[in-house]
Amino acid sequence: MGKLILFGAILARLLAAQTVDLTILHFNDFHAKLKPTQGRGGAAHLATAIARERENCARCLLLNAGDNVQGSPVSTIYRGLPVFEVLRPLRADAFVLGNHEFDYGADRINDFLAAAGLPILAANLLTPEGALFTGAASVIVEREGLRIGVVGVLMDDLVPKLTTPARLGANKLLPALDTLRLEAAKLKGQTDVLVALVHLWKEQCDQIVAEIPEYSVVVSGHDHGGMTKPFVVDSRYGVRLRANASELGRLDLKYDKSARKIMSATWRIIPITTAEYPADAEVAAIVDRWEKKVDAVVDVPIGTNSADRNRDWLRTWIERVMRERTGSDFAHMNAGGIRDVLPAGTVLARNIWNIAPFDNLLVTGKIKGSLIPDFIRGNSVLDPDKIYSVSTLDFVVETMRSPTSKFRDFALAMPLDGPLLRDVLIDWVKQKTTIE
Ligand SMILES: [Zn+2]
After folding, report:
1. Cα(169) to centroid of ligand 1, in Å?
2. For labeling, which of 117, 136, 237, 384 is most exposed (least CB within 10 Å)?
3. Residue 32 Cα, ligand 1 centroid: separation in angstroms?
4. At a CB cut-off of 8 Å and minimum separation 6, what does 59 contact?
5. Which structural domain range is residue 31 located in?
């Protein structure tokens, strides 16, 4: 009996030896929110939270799921670069490229790579010559005898949905999920566990968990809604957080190396609050240096706002300003182009920058009624041969100029030139003094 118990204990220890701890810290869609907003987020506060989590972590990985730039004046004015300088001291193990990293043109991504000082993965993005655009499809990180392979991909339908042909340039995107399968095959035998680090539509993120069993974990970004619990299929886990560094994720795994299987997992969403996490001095110094440069431009009062405004209200307001300023019959603002809400009270130029961080132009064209898309004309009945005036953004027009767009004729009839939307909005507030 004693022998049996001893044997049982040895067996249990042998089995336990195959099960190792692995912790994945992650965040996504940072969107250049260097400073906290309403007590949440901020790079320096995020840095403190990451440092604390690393203290009680046997094998710790930090992953960033893309869309780090675009969303604050410092990003717009300095074309994204300060963001990677601020994130560098966080010592992530890998980034994946997001769609917004193309906002200042694909060439600018080369500067991000230098500033980040670590791999920005994009296994499915190739140069015109067929080389990996960012130079890295995957990384293998070793932590105390565990080889963790991380493969990065981004959505393959960037054009026309999320960026313009000009910004993507002659670079090519390969199908994201096929690329993940291919990279898993390439890494066979070189890793103990595979993680997909992806910037994809959320349906695709779930699809990887369900259909590509080589990946034990899928860390994703792009959808800003976050999750309340992981998406789990056959002990494989998908996780994603809300945007703007308002949260840090911690996925603690008991992982069986020989079975290549997660035995158990807990996922914790850590709210980044300035109260709980004081600013890290090193990161705060970099943030301050950059923010000071833009303060003089954007922290100036331009008017007042009579009530709290959500994005829907702001969209209607922007379309009203567009019509007033251009004299157009119809105006269209894309919902995705509105990046912040507007609290009641004094309006700073910074508020408008945060609402409209993109350098989009307000364009106005004279268009035949028959060509005007229904989502622009709404319920209005148009004379198909009459010429109407339509205003929208150059970005909207460019995305509709793709050969497969059903609104291509409309888009080709629209110009691509005009004033910056942001300047138009700021001027309007200055002139009217009150938003109501
Ligand atoms: Zn995105």
Report:
1. 18
2. 384
3. 13
4. 20, 21, 22, 23, 143, 144, 146, 148
5. 18-290
The verdict on 72 and 202 lying in the same domain is yes
Question: Do residue 345 and residue 268 come from a single domain?
Answer: no
Q: What is the pLDDT of residues 25-74, one digit of tens each?
A: 999 999 999 999 889 999 999 999 999 999 999 899 999 999 999 988 89
**In this model, does residue 1 exceed pLDDT 60?**
no
Q: What is the pLDDT of residues 367-410, one digit of tens each?
A: 999 999 999 999 999 999 999 999 999 999 988 988 888 999 99
Q: Is residue 5 part of a domain?
A: no
- pLDDT band at residue 14, thresholds of 50, 70 and 90? low
Side-chain-side CA neighbours of 296 within 13 Å: the count stands at 4
Q: How far is the CA of 278 from the centre of ligand 1 (A)?
A: 28
149, part of any domain: yes
Residue 292 one-letter amino acid: K
What is the distance in A from the centroid of ligand 1 to the CA of 337? 12
- Rounded to the nearest angstrom, the distance between the alpha carbon of 100 and the centre of ligand 1 is 6
Q: Do residue 100 and residue 239 come from a single domain?
A: yes
**For residue 7, is it within any domain?**
no
Cα separation, 423 vs 402, in Å, equals 28
Outline where 92-139 has alpha helix (H). Answer: 108-116
Q: What is the pLDDT of residues 104-121, one digit of tens each?
A: 999 999 999 999 988 899
Q: Does the pLDDT value for residue 2 go beyond 60?
A: no
Expressed in angstroms and rounded, the spacing between residue 158 Cα and the centre of ligand 1 is 10
Handedness of CA 167, 171, 176, 180 (dihedral sign): negative
Ligand 1 center to 289 CA (angstroms): 27
How far does the centroid of ligand 1 lie from the alpha carbon of residue 372, in Å? 28
